[in-house]
Design a protein that fits this description.
about 240 residues, alpha/beta, TIM Barrel, eight-stranded parallel beta barrel, about 30% strand, globular
């Protein structure tokens, strides 16, 4: 299991939201590239980038920042989500050096789009499932759907999806602890590897996820806890490596 620092980009800045609310924003840096450098220096094995403006606009808004980070670290796996709705956008990101694209809203509204991408860009597609009370949310979490997280994930079995990023919206950015049970239940229901996200607060959350990683949890995304220093990336990764 690897730890994946999150860099959420809004208007060119590195920010964190609470429960996906664009009006409840904390700015942590005016320079996302330097923030990426910080996490890489601390041993990050992958970065999770989100174009928050793009998630609401339905198209990339901060692609220049994403490209700058991928250019700065050409050998580092980078996954990007937010506003990826067309094949051209995927192609542009991959050509810019990004390793994985995360498909969220389109995975719900046009699941055949994910199938198409997996065929055209094998090994490069991650599905992002953002859920509240087990039900999937879309459009930058602004809308709820009538689809359960497990049902959506199972839709992509045998499609070639590299991973599922599962986020519990109710906990995201709230520093209330990760939803281990829901994450494990999802991982147990599919053969696709799962990356946990949302609510990671301290080393105890990492320990709890590490205990159930055999369920198919291959990574965990950490955001606010890193920025507010309630988790040390080197110490947390060292714990995982030892256990």
């Amino acid at each position: 299991m690897i730890l994946i620092p999150a860099i959420d980009i809004k208007q060119g800045q590195c920010v964190r939201l609470r429960q996906g609310n664009m009006e409840d924003t904390t700015v942590f840096s005016d320079d996302p590239i330097s923030m990426a450098e910080k996490w890489v220096a601390q041993g990050a094995q992958r970065l999770h980038l989100v174009d928050l403006d793009g998630a609401f606009a339905g198209e990339p808004v901060n692609a220049d920042v994403v490209e700058s980070i991928s250019t700065r670290f050409p050998d580092l796996p980078i996954q990007i989500g937010g506003g990826i709705r067309t094949v051209d956008t995927v192609e542009a990101y991959l050509e810019a050096g990004v390793s994985y694209v995360i498909i969220g809203t389109q995975a719900v509204k046009k699941p055949e789009f994910v199938t198409e991408l997996c065929a055209e860009f094998p090994g490069k597609v991650i599905v992002g499932i953002d859920a509240k009370n087990g039900m999937v949310a879309v459009q930058g979490w602004a809308e709820s759907s009538d689809t359960s997280a497990e049902h959506l994930a199972q839709r992509f079995e045998d499609q070639g999806v590299s991973a599922i990023v599962y986020t519990d919206i109710s906990r995201d950015g709230m520093m209330q602890g990760v939803n281990v049970e829901a994450t494990r239940a999802l991982a147990n229901s599919i053969s696709i590897p799962v990356i946990a996200s949302g609510g990671v607060t301290n080393i105890e959350d990492i320990k709890k996820l590490n205990e159930v990683k055999s369920s198919g949890i291959e990574g965990v995304i950490i955001g606010r806890a890193l920025y507010e220093r309630t988790i040390s990336l080197p110490e947390a990764q060292a714990y995982i490596n030892e256990h």
